[in-house]
Amino acid sequence: MNLKINAILADYDGTLAPINVSREQSKPSKELLEALKQSSEKVILGVISMKDYWFLKNRIPFAHTYGCIGGLEIITRKKAFIRKLAANKLETIKKFYDYVNEHHEKSCIKIEIKKLINKKIAGLSLDWRNCQEIPPIIQHLKNTAKHFNLHTINYNEPFIDIIPIEPNKGTAVKFIKQLFKIKGPILYLGDSTLDNPAFKTADISIGVISHNDPKILEAQFLIDFKDVPKLLKHLIKTDMTFTNKLPLLKRGATQ
Ligand SMILES: [Mg+2]
């Protein structure tokens, strides 16, 4: 199998940047950043992440497109689009944010706000990594989010995301495909179950083995996190021709 790819779309946390580090330290390695930059000169490069635009554009400024907050907002160099269902719930997210602030006594929980390009609040991340144990208020806030009809994403990690609607990275991939009129194969890289809809939509799907059990990834191939720069360098060298013969690749669940 030899395919000349037209686009590389990738998740961020655990795929392009290490996962178990602070927000400040979350960056792609120099080697990976250089390979991404060179790739962006040859194909459409997009990042589809739970993070917001303001975070992503600082880390990977040269991407053609960002699928932010799980693809609720898609941003290109010229335009920004938001999913209508999410746009309709921005008031509710703001109310929830006010509620969290009223009920969250000065504690070990860190609140991170996810903002749209127009700076409106579109989601929250509650992080209790600095707490000794899970604070009881977390369960209360999860229940409240449900009551507000908002969507909570649980990770097997000490943080949750609360956003207007369920994210769908597959929808984001389809939207980007149409927007950029991408005719040829799209390669997608991701490391969690949130990436499974995108794996299905892409032509070549590669699961990144970082902290998750790779069995949960519905991808054609698997690659170790540390080998992602090597994969990109190989693509650059071969004028973006993907081959399944690369020794870096392991067989994934859907192959
Ligand atoms: Mg990830």
Explained architecture:
The protein is an alpha/beta fold. The protein has two domains: 2-83 and 167-251, Rossmann fold; 85-163, Alpha-Beta Plaits (2-Layer Sandwich). Helix content is 29%, strand content 25%. It is built from eight helices and 15 strands. The chain has helices at residues 30-40, 53-59, 84-87, 90-103, 136-147, 169-179, 196-201, 228-237, and strands spanning 2-4, 7-10, 44-48, 65-68, 73-76, 80-82, 110-115, 121-127, 151-154, 159-163, 186-190, 204-209, 221-224, 241-243, 250-251. The strands form three sheets. It has a nine-stranded mixed beta sheet with strand order 6-5-4-3-2-11-12-13-15, sandwiched between helices. It has a four-stranded antiparallel beta sheet with strand order 7-8-10-9. It has a two-stranded antiparallel sheet with strand order 1-14. It binds magnesium ion. Magnesium ion (MG) is lined by residues 11, 13-15, 191-192.
Helix percentage range: 25-40%
Mind telling me which CATH architecture of the largest domain this is?
3-Layer(aba) Sandwich
Number of helices: 8
Q: How many strand segments?
A: 15
Query: How many domain units?
Result: 2
